[in-house]
TrEMBL record:
Record's protein name: Acetylornithine aminotransferase
Iron found in the keyword field: no
EC number: 2.6.1.11
Gene expressing this chain: argD
Species, as recorded: Paraglaciecola polaris LMG 21857
Record-linked InterPro entries: Ac/SucOrn_transaminase_bac (IPR017652), AcOrn/SuccOrn_fam (IPR004636), Aminotrans_3 (IPR005814), Aminotrans_3_PPA_site (IPR049704), Class-III_PLP-dep_AT (IPR050103), PyrdxlP-dep_Trfase (IPR015424), PyrdxlP-dep_Trfase_major (IPR015421), PyrdxlP-dep_Trfase_small (IPR015422)
Amino acid sequence: MQVTRELFDDVMVPNYAPSAIIPVRGQGSRVWDQNDKEYIDFAGGIAVNCLGHCHPALVQALTEQGQKLWHLSNVMTNEPALRLAKKLTDLTFADKVYFANSGAEANEAALKLARRWALDVHGQHKSQIISFSKSFHGRTFFTVTVGGQAAYSDGFGPKPGDIAHANYNDLASVEALISNNTCAVMLEPLQGEGGIISPDPDFIKGVRALCDKHNALMIFDEVQTGVGRTGAMYAYQDLGVTPDILTSAKALGGGFPIGAMLTTTEIAKHLKVGTHGSTYGGNPLACAVAEAVIDVVSHNDVLAGVMEREQLLRDGLVRINEKYNVFAEIRGKGLLLGAALNDTYKGQAKAILTAAAEHGLMCLIAGADVVRFTPSLVIPIADIEQGLARFEQAVAQVVKG
């Protein structure tokens, strides 16, 4: 069978509009398409491929577990799931872990747990969930409604209720909404899809204090920021606050689908037997791969290397900007960076992304005005330098029109 981009239009639901490029293999931070054209990968599958493509430790974990046991169901537990849960609790504030298949499912579990906890401990009046405009928490109907982008949640009929949206980095807007009827405040410790917006330290600490004052749970969506992306194992560890519930996915499996919700024993007890579940959640294959990811990423040299690579990428983007004057600022932390376009080039992030691909570089956007970079945490320095050179060619192409 000949596989072409046209086949997509014939057989796939049209909710995506993928580019003409069909990658067929990857190694480290490089990818090759059907025509054997090579790309440097600054996209990382949207912050997923945290160790690049086909990392030996992950290939080994997948291959070994693939010869042993793939799936059981949660009628029984399994060794990889228990080892992974122990490693996650050792590395974080959490005592307990729930496994799912994705970030959306981890967030769904977090929101259901928050509602169940509030109902059990405080009563029916305590059901309000506060999140933030421009936030993104997944595509299930509950998570997409909590997410602060109406374009993703409109058009599907009545939405789940008692959800309010404040403005990120605006503590007064949270204060205006929060009350003793609030069960949880959900936020990203660095907004991803919303444009790579870093949190103001006083804002994050202020939200924590408001949650404490009103007996509301603080939920950190670390789907994009977690597993070393910002230079800490989880972003909360650099912010001086501890959430009550944390969600993790994307990089957790390094490219294999897995999600996790982490919380304390006291909160976790409200998801008692039968209240929530997942057919594949915690299956041995996913957990074996994720365990290998955690073993590699939690090394101090890998986390220190993230900060070193951030500096190289930032410096390179600043140099390109000195030449072409297209960016208003370089935002973000670690290897979750956004180059925000200035007024002259507003709305042209997609044009830069397309030009980058022509020059052999894969990058991302975060809205119409921000070019986003989420490369492998262990991307070789030479690949960063060469990738920046290719990105500069793309910027020059867009500038010259």
